Amino acid sequence: GNSVTQMEGPVTLSEEAFLTINCTYTATGYPSLFWYVQYPGEGLQLLLKATKADDKGSNKGFEATYRKETTSFHLEKGSVQVSDSAVYFCALSGLAAGNKLTFGGGTRVLVKP
Amino acid sequence: DTGVSQDPRHKITKRGQNVTFRCDPISEHNRLYWYRQTLGQGPEFLTYFQNEAQLEKSRLLSDRFSAERPKGSFSTLEIQRTEQGDSAMYLCASPGRRDGGYNEQFFGPGTRLTVL
Question: What pLDDT sits at residue A60?
């Protein structure tokens, strides 16, 4: 079946540091890939997506590229802010699986001023 | 606001009691998904509907769980004889397009269940 593995946290950074969160997946066919974010006390929000190989999703300064050859979708941001402190979830979905989402375990990121 | 609402937002119950949650998805969207998220984990799929039809149930959904979507609009998730292990956040989601053709999903705020 489908599965997503992402690096465990917490990840603690200083403001303006570079952030990378690794995500790899196992899936049949050609899944779509997503990053969701959960800010403290808030619901799950879609951050970005990529639907085919070599697509780059981007939003709010975050980027992730769909790498089929390495089955990866790593999240990056060049200069984090305190407001980026949150839990980040990598996820995939596929038509063969009814488009249901399979999530990784989440990575907590804490940005200190 | 994603357009998905859930009620109640919080529920505290005693072990052995029955509870029911409601989800109102994005208006006129054909598909509706339920997930469960326990503390420190990613959400896990429970079940989904295409209009009124329940098309798939996860093995996480034991016989004590039942979900319905009687008119193809709102959905309810009932847990009978609750156990402490049922304590979790229950999330509802709508896909990004009315016919469910897009893969991304938009989530409601969730119902946090605590079983004492």
Answer: 96
Which of A10-14, B1-5, B45-49, B63-67 comes out lowest in average pLDDT? Answer: B1-5
Whether B115 contacts B86, CB under 8 Å: yes
Beta bridge partners of A4: A25
Of B32, B46, B54, the closest CA to residue B106 belongs to B32
Please state, in angstroms and rounded to a whole number, the distance separating the CA atoms of residues A103 and A109: 17
Q: Are B4 and B25 in contact (CB under 8 A)?
A: yes
Q: pLDDT tens across B55-75, in order?
A: 999 998 899 999 999 988 999
Q: How far is B8 from chain A (nearest CA, A)?
A: 14
Name residues whose C-beta falls within 8 Å of residue A61's C-beta, 6 or more positions apart in sequence: A77, A78, A79
Handedness of CA B86, B26, A4, A62 (dihedral sign): negative
* B32 and B94 Cβ atoms separated by less than 8 Å: yes
Q: How far apart are CA A48 and CA A65, in angstroms?
A: 10
Radius of gyration, CA atoms only, chain A: 14
Q: In Å, how far is A78's CA from the nearest CA of chain B? A: 25
Q: Which residue of A has its CA nearest to B38?
A: A105
Chain B residues in contact with A99 (beta carbon < 8 A): 31, 95, 100, 103, 105
Sign of CA dihedral A45, A60, A52, A87: negative
Residue B101: the pLDDT is 59
What CA–CA distance (Å, rounded) separates B89 from A101? 16
| Token reading at B101 | 């053709």
